[in-house]
Amino acid sequence: MAWLRRHLLLFAAVAVLLYMLLPNVVVAVFSFNDPVGRYNYTWTEFSTRAWTNPCGPQGLCDALGLSLRIGLIASLVATVLGTMIAFALGRYRFRARSGTNLLIFMPMATPEVVMGSSLLTLFLMMGVPSGGLAITIAHIMFCVSFVVVAVKARVATLDPRLEEAAADLGANPTQTFLRVTFPLAAPGILAGALLAFSLSFDDYIITNFNASPSSITFPMYVWGAAQRGAPVQVNVIGTVMFIAALAIVLVSQLLTSRRQRAAA
Amino acid sequence: MAQHGPGDLELIGLTKSFDDFTAVEPMDLTIPQGSFFALLGPSGCGKTTTLRMVAGLEQPTAGQILIGDTDITNTRPHQRNVNTVFQSYALFPHMSVMDNVQFGLRRRGDKDAKRKAQEALDLVELGHAGRRKPNQLSGGMQQRVALARALVNRPDVLLLDEPLGALDLKLRRQMQIELKRIQQEVGLTFIHVTHDQEEAMTMADSIAVMNAGRMEQLGDPAALYENPSSTFVANFLGQSNLLAAHITGTAGDGRLTADVHGHEVLVDAGRVPAGLRDVWLGVRPEKLALGEGNGVNELKGTVSDASFSGVATQYLVRMPWGMDLTVVQQNDGSARARLGDAVTLSWDPGHEFVLDSAQDEDAGVEHVVVDG
User: How far away is chain B from the Cα of A121, in angstroms, using its nearest Cα?
Assistant: First the structure.
């Protein structure tokens, strides 16, 4: 009993982790299934068929490619814009500062259905055709907010004296940014970029409003396929994405802990 | 001012105003090349703002800054051959100590950066610490890295913004000697901002005392101490007994007579500003002698407090008119007075300083420990 009580926290932690990770495990396990019929919900037999032929189902890899392309462009643009906004908000006092803060917060608080439909209305009014371009613009719009939040937290911890010291030592503004400001803000910027990419890659609702028949993203493909029974390859892509995300987190954790150990 | 040297720093009418107040009133100052100069004053007196204007981190509202004949008023910080040791050190946390010290040289494309940086680190006795990161060093070591990082660029002027403020007392004394040694070794102009009058006096060749955005007095430490030009300087630099006095006449021998609460004292005529009648007569505690003098400048009182500190004893002696005079008696073997003893205080004419009685006697009394 005492032993149980002492390890209660551990059990609770493991239970929560299992609860969160179990769906991913199921997806990974069923990526090795060889289902009978349309639905990949019951285990029949082990097979690597889906892994050896991930682009098998028609349109899957096109959708994946489009999602990756949109994700990269959207996260890149959102990171550049968001970083600049974060520095402006974190470093300077200006008249529209609180207003800007509110505007940045809005996309995070607005229901996606509202945002998706209003964006579609706007695009229609402005004559922007539905499709990849409209989706990318929409993604940049909501990703910027998350980048701003991530970078601003980092900027708040930066000592502005460091930039003064760099200037004092003869670094021009560009050198100061590249050698001092950017390296110090980089963890926040990287976190913002990764967040932006995964939000963009993952988005269904806003994307669906602004998509055209020729711009099917991966989440849209999965949703559509699920109506008729999703191919096993969807599980393969899902597993790969999960492992990639996990690897990035692990590597960054490892780097931070090594840096901290070196500094200790 | 003194003659103009090729590397002197010259401030002409330098002024800094913010929206609602003036941080630095128009200031004229020439700091000779190679000198160790201190800007001394309480927190908020404008000394750090002055320093930041010289560094280029703050744009003056009016006035000029010259190094030799070059006007640097409108140049950016990175264009000035001026380096700063920041109060918080501001070492780059993501770079090694070596890279921190090389930073300035690298920006100028110095091919010899590594060797010079190593020399600078050796100079501050941190030659072994080049590979470490700043946060692996103690406060005192970080301070020396910050000094090396600035020194290595051989600036025309090196600015030190309360560089010893974060160190404990013992380390601070040690660094004061160290800084002075380094300054003499490299021969650069050092401008040291501090609120610590003892620090300023032990280190600097000359001191500018600042108060409320104005320069109160400029001079070498001894001149400031012996001949303060205001009650602020008198109180801020060491302790002073300020006696309300009235000049009554001449006593021959270059002396004037003055009345201090009914007691006649002699004052060196040369120390009394012309035309002044109602004055503050200032006498430093160590200039007051306990016991019978030679018949002049004697005041009688009773000991109301005595504190022994080993090297000296400090007394408070209550005067008949209710004022406590501070007396410091060196521990030279002479008899010590006890609480309640009736004692006679005396001083030699000429050991006093004389200030206009219109000034506030309490100006500069409160010492502020931390600068904001």
Answer: 47
